């Protein structure tokens, strides 16, 4: 859905979401008012309505439908009177129920986030601390001691492979992680049952994450749950062994999920200063996982300016294969446009989004976010993507944000030659080969490690 405007005001609205194969009806806007009736959905019926006095662009049938309690009314209100003759730039966007009360749907999709292993559990811990709404959190691990420290409720901590590992962990061996998940498969199935969508998140390269995540995702897929894998690959300084194990784990995971988003930790180093502590670098990786999950879940679960139907999300993400994620945040006068540009130019994007056949994107701002800021971000993204791409858009208000806009974008449906996972693996291999070559040269020259230059991948582009 794109809101189309100009400096003089709102001039149109484009809706590209599809529900049940039927496209939403579009009613052209005037400068003063607009009405769009979105088709029925699994979550709710939605409608945008703009009137002047008693006059409305909506048909009588649409007015009758809107009177039904199952509709969510979302409107744009100007600070001026209802008879105002123009849509002022900077109109605040507000959401309200048909009777003025907060709208609640009894048909909401149930989303579960499963953090597997140490890295996945850490990411879930951060998600829990950020107070994400409408999501059920679980952690799965072979390390009982690490699980005991998690803020996740005890009933949502699943210790797998108790007979095999005795709660002592997988020792960095993916085969043990895999066997542990197989041993506890019935428990995993019970934890997943009832979900409509499951995120399986893990830091690949270790034993439990690399070995157990594919098994857990496979169980979810067999239950008919929309399954999204969102994982990180190791930093180069973690060593070749973890890199190889990560790639093998990703290959196995890819066969057991609908959509797989892989985040190369090495690329995160391009966004931080050289003085960044190691612990902060790992925290950044956890935070990227959090933003990825939240960017998708919020547009389904959080009552916002523009919500997305779960059926629409499933249409784009089911059997989508390898996907990419871009994240952008900005402040100031042009924050919406700058956040959108930052998202589509994100170092996490190996391939341009213009090659994607499906896009899910979410814009989040404070209560001061305006209709025209939403439109500014939409124009940046829609000008770049394939006109035939299936696009889903959601807008959410986070009261904690002020003068700040954040955009999360998921691009799916790439051709085999543009496969993001293959490119990520090639990138990691080049980094590791470069390290090995430098080490070999240093040894042959009899130099010590203190004289070796810092590798390029550890350098911040444009040092602060």
Brief account:
By secondary structure, the chain is α/β, with parallel strands linked by helices. The protein has helices spanning 60-66, 117-129, 144-148, 162-165, 174-183, 185-192, 207-222, 240-254, 265-268, 278-301, 310-317, 335-344, 371-382, 420-444; strands at residues 2-6, 9-14, 18-19, 22-23, 35-37, 45-49, 51-52, 55-56, 71-76, 93-95, 111-116, 135-141, 157-159, 197-203, 226-233, 259-264, 321-331, 358-365, 390-397, 404-412.
What does this structure look like?
The chain is an alpha/beta fold and 464 residues long. The chain is built from 14 helices and 20 strands. It has helices at 60-66, 117-129, 144-148, 162-165, 174-183, 185-192, 207-222, 240-254, 265-268, 278-301, 310-317, 335-344, 371-382, 420-444; strands at residues 2-6, 9-14, 18-19, 22-23, 35-37, 45-49, 51-52, 55-56, 71-76, 93-95, 111-116, 135-141, 157-159, 197-203, 226-233, 259-264, 321-331, 358-365, 390-397, 404-412. It is globular, with a radius of gyration of 24 Å. It is a peripheral membrane protein. Residues 110-304 form the Tubulin/FtsZ GTPase domain.
What's the structural blueprint in terms of helices and strands?
Elements: E1 2-6, E2 9-14, E3 18-19, E4 22-23, E5 35-37, E6 45-49, E7 51-52, E8 55-56, H1 60-66, E9 71-76, E10 93-95, E11 111-116, H2 117-129, E12 135-141, H3 144-148, E13 157-159, H4 162-165, H5 174-183, H6 185-192, E14 197-203, H7 207-222, E15 226-233, H8 240-254, E16 259-264, H9 265-268, H10 278-301, H11 310-317, E17 321-331, H12 335-344, E18 358-365, H13 371-382, E19 390-397, E20 404-412, H14 420-444
Parallel strand pairs: 6-9, 11-12, 11-14, 12-13, 14-15, 15-16, 16-17, 18-19
Antiparallel strand pairs: 1-2, 3-4, 5-6, 7-8, 9-10, 17-20, 18-20
């Amino acid at each position: 859905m794109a809101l189309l405007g100009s400096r003089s005001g709102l001039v149109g609205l484009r809706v590209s979401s599809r529900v049940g194969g039927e496209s939403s009806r579009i009613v052209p806007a005037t400068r003063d008012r607009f009405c769009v009736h979105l088709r029925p959905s699994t979550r709710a019926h939605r409608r945008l309505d703009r009137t002047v006095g008693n006059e409305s662009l909506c048909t009588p049938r649409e007015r009758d439908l809107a009177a039904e309690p199952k509709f969510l009314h979302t409107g744009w209100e100007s600070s001026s009177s209802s008879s105002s003759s123009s849509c002022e730039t900077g109109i605040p966007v507000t959401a309200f129920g048909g009777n003025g009360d907060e709208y609640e749907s009894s048909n909401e999709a149930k989303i579960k986030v499963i953090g597997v292993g140490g890295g996945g559990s850490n990411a879930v811990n951060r998600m829990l601390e950020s107070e994400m709404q409408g999501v059920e959190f679980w952690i799965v691990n072979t390390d009982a001691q690490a699980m005991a420290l998690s803020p996740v409720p005890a009933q949502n901590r699943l210790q797998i492979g108790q007979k095999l590992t005795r709660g002592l962990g997988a020792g960095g061996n993916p085969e043990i992680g895999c066997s542990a998940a197989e041993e506890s498969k019935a428990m995993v199935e019970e934890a997943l049952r009832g979900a409509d969508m499951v995120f399986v998140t893990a830091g690949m390269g270790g034993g439990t994450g690399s070995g157990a995540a594919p098994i857990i995702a496979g169980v979810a897929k067999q239950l008919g749950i929309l399954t999204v894998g969102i994982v990180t690959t190791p930093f180069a300084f973690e060593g070749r062994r973890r890199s190889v194990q990560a790639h093998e784990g990703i290959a196995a995971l890819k066969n057991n999920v609908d959509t797989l988003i892989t985040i190369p930790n090495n690329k995160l180093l391009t966004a931080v200063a050289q003085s960044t502590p190691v612990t902060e670098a790992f925290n950044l990786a956890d935070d990227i996982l959090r933003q990825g999950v939240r960017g998708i879940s919020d547009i389904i679960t959080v009552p916002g300016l523009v919500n997305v139907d779960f059926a629409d999300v499933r249409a784009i993400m089911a059997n989508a294969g390898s996907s990419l994620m871009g994240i952008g945040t900005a402040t100031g006068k042009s924050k919406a446009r700058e956040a959108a540009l930052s998202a589509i130019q994100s170092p996490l994007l190996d391939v341009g989004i213009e090659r994607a056949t499906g896009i899910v994107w979410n814009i989040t701002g404070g209560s001061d976010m305006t209709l025209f800021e939403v439109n500014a971000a939409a124009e940046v993204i829609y000008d770049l993507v394939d006109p035939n791409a299936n696009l889903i858009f959601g807008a959410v208000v986070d009261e904690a944000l002020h003068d700040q806009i954040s955009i999360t974008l998921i691009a799916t449906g790439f051709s085999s030659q543009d496969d993001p996972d293959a490119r990520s693996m090639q990138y990691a291999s080049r980094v590791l080969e470069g390290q090995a070559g430098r080490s070999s040269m240093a040894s042959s020259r009899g130099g010590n490690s203190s004289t070796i230059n810092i590798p390029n991948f550890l350098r911040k582009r444009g040092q602060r």
